[in-house]
Design a protein that fits this description.
Elements (H helix, E strand, L loop, with lengths): L1 H18 L4 H19 L53 E6 L5 E5 L4 E5 L7 E5 L3
Helix pairs in contact: 1-2
Protein name: NHL repeat containing protein
Pfam family, one: NHL
Keywords: Repeat
Length: 135
Amino acid sequence: DIEKKYNDLSEQIKQIHDENEFNEMNLNYLKSQLIEITEEFNNPVKICIEQDSQSFINEISIILSKKPTFNKWKQNAITVAGGNEKGQQLNQLMGPHGIFIDEKKNIFIADCSNHRIVEWKCNAKIGQIIAGGNN
């Protein structure tokens, strides 16, 4: 669809050029069309596949521009978050289901049973609630 719009715009430019009819209105129109096509190209719409629709995609490939990095973990680990029985205190977790570690080595934990996201700063003894926590 973007390619068709681009080709149509290209044809319009050639036609105006052949007729030697470039004026400010034409240029503004062509510029706005080019901006619209560029925005559509840079921000593609989301694709939804309805449940009842027939399959038309056999394979999807995702090419990453950057190789993912994997952290190597030490064999003899230490507890850096929780470890103080189950509970609701800031040094406790109950039902942790997800973890994220940022570039500053802060740990973010989805503490599902407590309905909260807890951030544990590097070397901290207790976490701080950054979202939720309302039972």
